[in-house]
Amino acid sequence: MARYALHQVPIKVSVNNDTPVPMSVFKRKNVSFHENSWPSHSSLDFKIASSWTRARPVFCMSVQQASKPKVAISPLSLEDAKEPPLHLYKNKEPYIGTIVSVERVVGPQAPGETCHIVIDHGGNVPYWEGQSYGIIPPGENPKKPGNPQNVRLYSIASTRYGDFFDGKTASLCVRRAVYYDPETGKEDPSKKGVCSNFLCDSKPGDKVQITGPSGKIMLLPEDNPNATHIMIGTGTGVAPFRGYLRRMFMEAVPTFKFSGLAWLFLGVANTDSLLYDDEFSKYLEDYPGNFRYDRALSREERNRNGGKMYVQDKIEEYSDEIFKLLDGGAHIYFCGLKGMMPGIQDTLKRVAESRGERWEEKLLQLKKNKQWHVEVY
Ligand code: FAD
Ligand code: A2P
Fold first, then answer.
1. What keywords sit in the KW lines (predicted)?
2. pLDDT over 90 for what percent of the chain?
3. Is this model's pTM higher than 0.85 or not?
């Protein structure tokens, strides 16, 4: 297996000083990847960019200028619907999509493997940021012989325009589920997770059964472009936040010009486990007044009690600011490990009490105001 993965980092090229077109550069990451034969993003995007520039005079194309303009997206009709698409494809009649690419996105020292998987849905399974796809792995359900496997849900990690900005793909961020024998502590390959391993092992051109899209809890409220969005993710729980942040900071969405604050707390094991870190770091550079990004590296950093640094410990560090933002109407989102919620609730309860507030009442109020969004698994 090759040691390097091509990690896409879109840059924006300004043409005529105002209209950006997408172009990608590929950054080498010291990780392994699955070879693929799909036309590379770089050659595809280069074709788009060069045909565009042939048609129009280019006055300026410098990296300096390229930092702020956003990426053009299409079709803009994806903005027209008033309600999110829901359950367009059901378990009995899934849509058959095609794998475009499977890329390992963690470094060699990450415990476990996480892959970024782009699926071509041909524009037939539209979705909004924060929704999930269902995937039905191939084969027979061992518990119900003669029946297909059960559907598994995956949060979509791209915006509705997909990673090619054309509304035809959806990306998933999938961690291989592995089973460790409690007695030996060793991995038991005979019990590995069915769907996550199917997805991470798939190759470009493979077919994949898609249901959905589903979910309304994690939709990004867009009524107020000045709103504050506090996002708390562990591991692959970062997926919906990648979609939100691309919509806020990367894409030129005519009907959503974000001018509020997005604050991402991401909990992962170590530096090699960071997900989409280049992308998020770029927003910090480009939009320092609108984006904050705090990472909790559980196996590299210590909390103030000497224990593992979890996202809830980071939240505690900033609790005063977070409480003020919530009082001002901020939305707060949690996505990822189910196990983080008790720790988060304990932390928030402790902070509330130290401020002379009752957490149960505050939580009820946040839920009533639709500020509290949780999707854990
Ligand atoms: P399964 O085959 O379902 O196995 C489940 C677990 O049991 C695995 O850990 C496996 O190791 C273990 N196991 C298997 N056989 C045995 C056995 N005989 N004895 C003991 N243990 C065993 N996941 C992501 O990676 N990314 C996402 O973005 C994501 N989003 C989600 C969103 C939602 C709303 C939900 C509900 C879940 C999401 N998930 C996500 C989780 C995902 O749906 C799957 O649950 C996950 O990928 C595991 O599925 P699997 O088929 O690989 O494992
Ligand atoms: P750790 O694995 O060091 O205990 P994963 O990679 O398994 O999806 O996990 C993502 C991150 O969430 C890891 O840093 C993991 O830490 C951390 N984590 C595990 N349990 C909890 C928990 N109860 N609360 C918060 N974070 C957690």
1. Chloroplast, Electron transport, FAD, Flavoprotein, NADP, Oxidoreductase, Photosynthesis, Plastid, Transit peptide, Transport
2. 81
3. yes
